[in-house]
Amino acid sequence: MQNSQYEQQYKKKVIDFFDSRTSYDNDYTIHRALPLLDLVQLKKGQKVLDLATGTGIIAIAVAQIIGSEGKVTGVDFSSVMLAQAQQKIEELGLQNIELIEADAEYIDFNDESFDVILCSTAIVYFKDISAALRKCYRFLKPGGTVGFSCCSEESCGAPLIIEICDKHGISLTSINEPTGTPEKCHHLLTEAGFQNIEVKTQQLGFYRNLEQAKEWNGGWFHPRENPLLELSSEQMAELKAEFRQKIEVETTEQGAWYENLTFFVSGRKV
What we know:
Blueprint: H1 5-19, H2 27-33, E1 47-51, H3 57-66, E2 71-76, H4 79-92, E3 97-101, E4 114-119, H5 129-139, E5 140-151, H6 158-167, H7 182-191, E6 195-203, E7 206-208, H8 210-213, H9 233-250, E8 256-258, E9 261-268
Parallel strand pairs: 1-2, 1-4, 2-3, 4-5
Antiparallel strand pairs: 5-9, 6-9, 7-8
């Protein structure tokens, strides 16, 4: 499949972003990932695919559950994150994980190759989520399970940036919009053919200090469009200044609230 020029630039931006996160693993990223496994009944000997595996937080946890008779395949296009995953795998002496450096959205496997397919917090980075879920359906064995996690539309600071840009006639869409409600998650899985769909909600938001909160570098992730790329440095400076002012006004004694309402979603191929 031929990628558009924008998609190529976007994917490179995502890779560069994750390549820069050389100390990705912490209590927050681990706590955010692992609840996904509560929705999936993992068993010894299963074959599991972890899309956008990153540093292998999910893949390693799965490998330890399914044992030496099972196998985890982790796919990611960030070589730096995969190197971190590989180091952890070697330190733990795990022999049942294979890491593949590739774009998880476009990788292909034989039909009915996996018992379980997982994607922790990364499905919104895909250009075509519906197509990705249809591929997951095809890759799964009958009775297999897909599980992914994502955030609400109100999460990750997006609403404030959208609001400020809108005042300047710039229309932005949140990357979380396609999966931004439990109903949307349910619909996407139904559309792909899945049944027995379950959506669990967990608030993972936290307070940040003012200096952290008001730092916006002008970045915006969206797999199909980014109007901010067309702005001059003067226009961008104006948006950043308004963002900082708004954060300062909204910050309380506890700090600046960072909303992160997370959905953990699963469905079954019957």
